[in-house]
Amino acid sequence: MSNSSGDPYRKALNSALRILARREHSSVELAQKLMRRGHAEAVVQQVILECLRLNYLDDRRVLRQVLDGMQRKGFGPQRIRHELLKRGLAAGESDCGAAECMPPEEERSTASRVALKKWKSLQQEPEPGRRRLRLMRFLRSRGFSYAVIYDVMETLEGPASEDPPSSS
Question: Which of 4, 10, 33, 168 has the fewest CB within 10 Å, making it most exposed?
Answer without folding.
Answer: 168
